[in-house]
Design brief:
- The protein is mainly beta and 247 residues long.
- The chain is built from no helices and 28 strands.
- The strands form six sheets. Strands 2, 4, 5, 8, 9 and 10 form a six-stranded mixed beta sheet that branches.
- The protein is rod-shaped and about 110 Å long.
Amino acid sequence: MPISPNQGSTGGGTTVTITGTNLGGALSVKFGTKLATITANTATSVTVISPSGTGVVDVTVVTLGGVSNPLPFYYVGAPFKSGLSDLSGPTAGGNTVTLTGVGLSTASAVNFGANAVTPVVLSDSQLSVTVPAGAAAGPVAVSVTTLGGTNNGLSYTYVDIPTIGTPLPGTGPTSGGTAVTIPGTGLGTAQSVTFGGTAAPFAVVSDTSVTAVTPPGTAGAVDVVVTTTGGTATGVGAFTYVAGPGI
């Protein structure tokens, strides 16, 4: 007489179907000593709403013919989340984050705001999740749904793709060392700045401005690239290295 599912929330409320023979006219279904609510009944199945409980209990069906053999039902507590490997990412989504906690082995969904995705269960304490696209930049609540219930408490921030304008100044010596201001938008989470593919030391001034010091380069125009949590912005040929005089 199979039971499906054989796990559910400690708070009760799980829809459980028990299949077997001679089940018509079921008088009651018990989860341990507690009565379940019968919602459907045929000769081969009984569907019930589980009562609250803890641990492992025996489920039995009582009919006019007697009491069935018991089947185990496992009560699962609500999940507990302790952290996300990344707290922010692009509004387009698609990046993978790891969620850690306790009681995650039966996770069926992770919500980022209103958008739900199916996680990959790595263990009872770890999930891998591909972040869905966000509706707009800004923070959203992250919740996990398991057979034990739904738990909130974490936040994830969507970040817009950055843009950059013309660096000031736009030229400097091939020896490097020029202090440059790069205007733009979405620069507050800048992770790197490169000139012609070479990393430059930089500082975030605001969401609309980053300063950097040019590394040495070869004469000519080079691309300026700013990478943030939200993505990458490229200024094609935005800075020009100028060779020094020679006699």
